[in-house]
Design goal:
Length: 135
Amino acid sequence: MSALRQKMIQDLQLAGLSAGTQEAYVRSIRHLAEHFRASPDQLSEKQVREYFLFLKNKKKHSPNTLRVPYAAIRFFYTQTVPRQWATLAKLKIPKHKPLPDVLSVPELRRLMGALRKPYTRAFLWTVYSCRPGTR
């Protein structure tokens, strides 16, 4: 194990991160190093910025998939080998807000038909019909 990797693991432990998080962060830094075929402490801000764009635009990672590499690289360049890079300060991952599942008309009828008590069925029909966009 390299001295740099050992230092990062120690920094992760001191930060109180779980073993799983530590493994994920070390793996993310290893992928960064493999991408450029260079030690991560030798990379420039421009290269790190290119790597972020590569993950987002070329590999088409979702915001949730990008969270670990972004956090790992930010941790590495702020804790293990501190750098004052604007790229790290600007880095934002949009919150992923999935759309709710919408029942089809047959699914809704099947659901309502499964209800045994009339007052429960009346309550759910009322609630369903009060939601926006049902008219």
